[in-house]
Amino acid sequence: MKSKFFFRLLISSYGLSTFSEGIIIPIYAIFVQKIGGDILEASGAVAVFYIISGISTLLIHRLQWSQKNRFLLLTFGWFIWLVGIGAYFIISNITTLFIAQVLAALGNAIADPAFDAELEDNTIDAVETYQWGQFEALKDIFQGVAAFIGGFVAGIFGFTALIGIMVATATISFVMILWYVKRKKRSAKSV
């Protein structure tokens, strides 16, 4: 069932998740330096995230099971991703940084294709291009605002406050996905 409500709920949740990740991106190397790392370890952590995410996505979503269990993947993946974001609170060295990156990457790998499929199911054909444009625009706006706020918060209040904002927005995003799944299942039963 295609719905503007479901579409908006999905893109809002994704916007908040983008915000929670994007808030640290411009100052990521500084964060890594504060825990004893250098530029090579910062780039290595980002590389681990993308490589783990890519390989895991290929392995998980090649199975027919993933299509049939989209809601499970969406909620479980978002939860694992939230744990990865929350792990930033306990990062004290490069090893814990890499663990947080692996968790966040696994969460993305599990949830993102399910999210994309749900977003596609909720676009209305007559305005599909516009709705995808809304999604892309919102993502870019959230990342831009997050970049500015991240530098501001870290500069004035430090990385602990920044991580607190990351976790708070990631939690709100996860709750929105839970609400989406609950509403979508209820909507499917009533049809």
How would you describe this structure in keywords?
191 residues; 8 helices; mainly alpha; globular
Characterize this entry briefly.
With 191 residues, the protein is mostly helical. The chain has one domain. It has helices at residues 4-22, 28-34, 39-60, 64-68, 70-86, 94-121, 128-157, 159-190.
Structural notes for this entry:
This protein is an all-alpha fold. The protein has one domain (43-185). Helices cover 84% and strands 0% of the residues. It contains eight helices and no strands. It has helices spanning 4-22, 28-34, 39-60, 64-68, 70-86, 94-121, 128-157, 159-190. The longest helix has 32 residues, at 159-190. It is globular and about 55 Å long.
Order of helices and strands: HHHHHHHH
Q: Estimate what percentage of residues fall within beta strands.
A: under 5%
Count every beta strand, where a strand is a DSSP E run of 2 or more residues.
Answer: 0
CA-atom Rg in angstroms? 17 Å
- Which residues form runs of ≥5 with pLDDT under 50? none
Largest sheet: none
- The chain-level mean pLDDT equals 90
Counting copies of identical and different chains, the oligomeric state is single chain
Q: Tell me the helix content.
A: over 70%
Helices and strands in order, then pairings?
Layout: H1 4-22, H2 28-34, H3 39-60, H4 64-68, H5 70-86, H6 94-121, H7 128-157, H8 159-190
Helix pairs in contact: 1-7, 1-8, 2-3, 3-6, 5-6, 5-8, 7-8
